[in-house]
Design brief:
The protein is an alpha+beta fold. 37% of the residues lie in helices and 18% in strands. Helix 1 packs antiparallel against helix 4.
């Protein structure tokens, strides 16, 4: 019964019929171990076999979906995922030499459907795997987010499941958490305090990242066999990876439900796109075309350099 009450609260909490945005945040079945690269790979791999009620757990490395309710319109459910199978990822690890750079590579993506999201929401809520963060919106804010949802679909961004560095507002695609966080960014609600609470920063040694013509020093199988090394020190060659972490978001919510009334914040007047639509769509197409492949060393060191040269728009 308590689980059912929590689920009903998530579906119909106070302010249920006001304009609002919900972030539905799913924790991993077991916490990921971020102490070192090897511990991270092994904890992620172990989670792939997790089950709930005899079925494979749908979000083994944690996840975020969104639900947008504007007035009495039908709610919009979205959540980015990759269409790539675990077997295809395994092929990349074993045959292509992909290692930790898998965190940077864009894949073909799609959004979860409303039915998929709702099918898992109740059982996972009852077991404490889901927490909800609700933003109470004014009508201008909700309209802006509704336009953003439509734009995300029409520009093709919905087809790119981005690596952890990918920024959807720059046409690069997004993973699930960057996608969800972008809704707050579109409303200028991503404060420094919130970023500190929700983002994780890693120093990844360059020697652990495969690039074209050069494989990482430790392979995926090497990690599974126990090989490891620390994250990079500031003095050695590395990339700084800062990303939105669903697990940190989950713990920040605290309980099953947290609410923030942002109706007093003015909806931004700036355009949703940073450039013209043509340039933005060209940028999306560039990143879609270059998904699924090993990155060049230049791309690993500076994810936007080639896009900058192509479109003369440097973030």
């Amino acid at each position: 019964m308590p689980g059912l009450l929590i689920f009903l609260l998530i579906l119909f909490p106070f302010h249920s019929f006001a304009d609002h945005l919900d972030l539905l945040i799913y924790r991993a079945p077991a916490p990921l171990n971020w102490q070192s690269p090897g511990r991270l790979v092994r904890s992620m791999t172990k989670n792939l076999s997790a089950q709930v009620d005899g079925k494979d757990y749908p979000h083994p490395i944690s996840h975020v979906n969104i639900r947008l309710q504007c007035g009495w319109e039908k709610p919009v459910y979205r959540g980015m995922t990759s269409i790539k199978s675990n077997g295809a990822y395994l092929w990349d690890f074993l045959m292509k030499g992909v290692s930790l750079d898998t965190m940077l590579i864009n894949q073909t993506g799609r959004s979860y459907t409303e039915q998929e999201i709702l099918t898992w929401l109740k059982p996972l809520t009852e077991k404490g795997y889901v927490r909800q963060f609700r933003l109470i919106l004014n009508s201008d804010q909700c309209t802006r987010l509704r336009r953003y949802v439509d734009l995300y679909q029409s520009t093709g961004l919905i087809n790119i499941y981005g690596g952890l560095r990918s920024d959807p507002l720059l046409g690069q695609g997004a993973g699930c958490s960057a996608f969800a966080a972008s809704f707050l960014r579109v409303l200028d609600l991503d404060s420094t305090k919130l970023r500190q609470a929700w983002q994780r920063t890693l120093r990844i040694p360059l020697e652990l990242l495969s690039v074209k013509h050069e494989r990482a020093r430790i392979s995926f199988l090497g990690y599974l066999r126990g090989k490891d090394r620390p994250w990079a020190s500031p003095q050695e060659p590395h990339i700084l990876l800062k990303f939105w972490d669903p697990e940190k978001m989950f713990h920040w919510v605290g309980g099953s439900y947290r609410e923030w009334d942002v109706r007093d914040h003015n909806s931004p007047s700036k355009p949703l796109l940073p450039w013209s639509r043509e340039v933005f769509e060209n940028t999306v197409q560039y990143h879609f075309t270059n998904r699924r492949r090993l990155l060049t060393k230049e791309e690993v060191l500076n994810t936007s350099s080639k896009t900058c040269r192509n479109f003369q728009k440097c973030p």
